[in-house]
Amino acid sequence: MNVSRIITAMVALLISVACSGSKKQSNEMRKGKALIVFFSHAGENYAVGNIKEGNTKIVADYIKEQTGADMFEIVAEKSYDMPYSELIKVAQAEKKSGELPAFKGSISNVDEYDVVFIGGPIWWGTYPQVMFSFFNKYDLNGKTLIPFTTHEGSGLGSTVGDVKKQYPKATVTGAFAIYGHEVRTGKSKVLQWLKGLGY
C-alpha cells in the first residue's frame, strides 16, 4: 500500500515538472525577440526643466536592462532644441498639418522581432509626428506591440488607438504610462509593469 502511494506521488511529481517546463517554454516562445522603438526629447521639458537625457529614453533604458531587448531611437533630422513654449507650438503645427518629419537611421532586420515596445512623450494627445514617420516606413503587423508613454497628465492619450489603426493585424497590448517627472525615481514602477508582462 505504501509502495503504491509512493509510486503515485512520484508520477504526479513528474507530470507536474513536465507541465511546468512546457509552460515556461511556451511563455518564452510567446515573448520572442524584442525591440524597443522610441523617441525622446532632451532639453527643456515641462515639469522637469532642462534635461540632458529625455524622460522616454530613461524608461527605454529600464526596459532594455530588464528584457535584454534591442533598441532603436527615432531621432528627427530637424532640431527640436528650443524653449518649451516654442516646442509646443511646433508640435501642434506638425499635428495639424499632418507633417511627417524625416528621421535618421534605419532598421534592416525588423522582421526578426516578435515584440516591439513603442515609446514616446505625449505631444498634443498622442506620439510626436516623427514617430508616425517611422510607422509609415515599417510594417509591424503580425507582431505584439506594447505602447508606453511619458507625460505630465495626458496618460496614454490616443496612442493605443493610433497604433491599432496603423497596424490592424498586430496585437496591441500591455500599454503603460508614467509621469515624466517620476521616471528618474520610478524605476520600480516600470519593472512592476514589465513583470506583469512576463519579463
Automatic annotation (TrEMBL):
Ordered alphabetically, the record's keywords are:
Signal
As one GO molecular function, the record gives: FMN binding
Known Gene3D superfamilies for this protein?
3.40.50.360
Q: Where is the signal peptide?
A: 1-20
Domain of life, per UniProt, equals Bacteria
Q: Which residue range or ranges hold the Flavodoxin-like domain?
A: 53-178
Q: Which InterPro entries match?
A: Flavodoxin/NO_synth (IPR008254), Flavoprotein-like_sf (IPR029039)
Residues that span the membrane, as ranges: none
In terms of PROSITE patterns, this protein maps to: PROKAR_LIPOPROTEIN
| Protein name as annotated | Flavodoxin
The protein's organism comes out as: Prevotella heparinolytica
